[in-house]
Amino acid sequence: MLSSTVLFVGAVLIWLVTLPFDRDGRVLHLYSCFWAQLYFYVNPLWRLRVDGRERLPWRGPAVLVSNHESLGDILVLFGLYRPFKWVSKAENFRLPLIGWNMRLNRYVPLIRGDRVSIAKMMRGCEYWLSRGVPILMFPEGTRSFDGQVKPFKDGAFVLAMKMKCPIIPVVLTGTARTLPKHGWVLDTQSHCHVQVMPPVDPCAFPDVPTLREHVRDLIIAEKARLESGVSAPSQA
């Protein structure tokens, strides 16, 4: 709370200074990345490795999709250090300091199961994609209890097909130990890994279900590879 109070003041100052020339909030988002990553920097027992960051655009629309294991995923994915807008539960925006910063960043809120909210979320995502700002979604819709990748919902894939922009799969491992679903105790030691996979062109698929299941299969296979410790095949 103490650190968030100080960092939120910094966020407000950056928002005020950059608002006239940075209407997409890219600078504030990168500051928020630093805010989240600070907890990794100061904790010698938490380690984070990010591979494939160069596959993420600095500018241009893309739909990032990631598996979801814990609240720690949020801290970890900020380590991508690339501009994007989160799609997040509406209640998170009401959290003191952190939620207020989410509002400053104009991330996209969602009430799960509410059709009006879902439609509004889709419009918000389309707006940011049309401005060349990527979005990031958890297509499972909620955190996994056991680390297994749950079935994917359609939203991210509908957006990618409609906006004709790439889907970029992002695979997380090691985050379940930081703060698991329904858990409120931070694990003292965690080794987290983020693997950004090559973009997937939605135009190569006949429909949303085919695209959705292809991307899910990619994430499941890559997650299994990372957890087994097998080296990635060479990219010729």
Essential attributes:
single chain, 236 residues, alpha/beta, seven-stranded mixed beta sheet, 7 helices
Strand order within the widest beta sheet: 1-7-6-2-5-3-4
Mean pLDDT metric: 90
Structural class: alpha/beta
The number of E-state strands comes to: 7
Largest sheet: 7 strands, mixed
Helix tally? Answer: 7
Shape: globular
Helical fraction equals 25-40%
Characterise this structure.
This protein is globular. Helix 4 links the parallel strand 3 and strand 4. Strands 1-7-6-2-5-3-4 form a seven-stranded mixed sheet, with helices on both faces. The relative contact order is 0.17. It is built from seven helices and seven strands; from the N terminus they run H-H-E-E-H-E-H-E-H-E-H-E-E-H. Helix content is 39%, strand content 15%. Helix 1 packs antiparallel against helix 2 and helix 1 packs parallel to helix 4. It is α/β, with parallel strands linked by helices and 236 residues long.
